[in-house]
Amino acid sequence: QVQLVQSGAEVKKPGSSVKVSCKASGGTFSSYTISWVRQAPGQGLEWMGRIIPIPAIANYAQKFQGRVTITADKSTSTAYMELNSLISEDTAVYYCAGSTVGPYRVWGQGTQVTVSS
Amino acid sequence: DIQMTQSPSSLSASVGDRVTITCRASQSISNYLNWYQQKPGKAPKLLIYGASSLQSGVPSRFSGSGSGTDFTLTISSLQPEDLATYYCQQSYSTPLTFGGGTKVEIK
User: Fold this and answer.
1) pLDDT higher than 90, residue B16
2) CB A38 within 8 A of CB A70
3) Do B55 and A45 touch (CB under 8 A)?
4) What digits encode the pLDDT tens for the residues B92-104?
């Protein structure tokens, strides 16, 4: 089964961008849809969007449309989530999650993103 | 977007108790309903998929039921290690929305 390992914690200024990576190992990357889910402090889980690595089609929650970009690099088995125009409310733990069909059977460890001036 | 509503938002029960958490979808999602357990400081873990199928390795005290709009997660005999927040999620259509969570505490 694939394992997902995310990049480390980030501290960003308001108005800047952050790019979080999610590297897959131990499985066939192209078989998995990779989604991004975030969790603000003390809050629930919020779905941001997903990418199907082949043919690299992404779709996004309307809330984040125009501000988030999810990409995948098949050559390195890595998915990325870039969020622009950061505000303090974007402070959260960001998870990548993998599925073949339907549920997320595998999750990354989470990446803390803190937005602060 | 499909809205997922969980109840209760929190509960406290004793070891050995039967615990039931409900999840309601704003429209029919057939059986495209998943349940996750999240322990403090950890990533969520899949418990139940397809409304009632137990994920491999998950203890049999966990079970799920329902279809259409109303779903239930049951813990047949609560154990100390079940201290966690539980989330339902619909995988019927994007955005793949989650319920607000149910925090389970041990008395």
Assistant:
1) yes
2) no
3) no
4) 999 999 999 999 9
